[in-house]
């Protein structure tokens, strides 16, 4: 049947329920970010290995990727 959101008899979610929902959403977002970040680390590792970079070159590649990630976070 559905719920009429404008109904005065509307069942409001309690504060603890909302808190649990927010925590679940935050945890899901953290998990999603971790998957994306792990993928980026894997890509940069492959890039470094494919080009047989020295330690200094690898560090610079990591620095460039870190700057890219930081720029995306600021956007």
Per DSSP, the total helix count is 2
Helix content: over 70%
- Multimerization status: single chain
Question: Which residues form runs of ≥5 with pLDDT under 50?
Answer: none
Q: How many domains make up the 3D coordinates?
A: 1
Instruction: Describe the sheet with the most strands.
Output: none
The topology string of helices and strands comes to HH
Protein name: DUF2732 family protein
Organism: Rahnella contaminans
InterPro entries: DUF2732 (IPR020126)
Task: Report what the structure shows.
The radius of gyration is 22 Å and the shape is elongated. The mean pLDDT is 87. It has helices spanning 15-50, 55-74. The protein has one domain. The longest helix is centred in the middle third of the chain and has 36 residues, at 15-50. Helices cover 75% and strands 0% of the residues. By secondary structure, the chain is mostly helical. It comes from Rahnella contaminans. Pfam families: DUF2732 (PF10809).
């Amino acid at each position: 049947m559905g719920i009429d959101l404008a109904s005065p008899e509307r069942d409001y979610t309690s504060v603890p329920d909302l808190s649990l929902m927010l925590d679940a959403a935050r945890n899901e977002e953290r998990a999603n970010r971790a998957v994306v970040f792990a993928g980026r680390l894997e890509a940069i590792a492959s890039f470094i290995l494919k080009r047989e970079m020295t330690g200094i070159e690898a560090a610079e590649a990591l620095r460039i990727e870190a700057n890219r990630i930081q720029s995306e976070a600021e956007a």
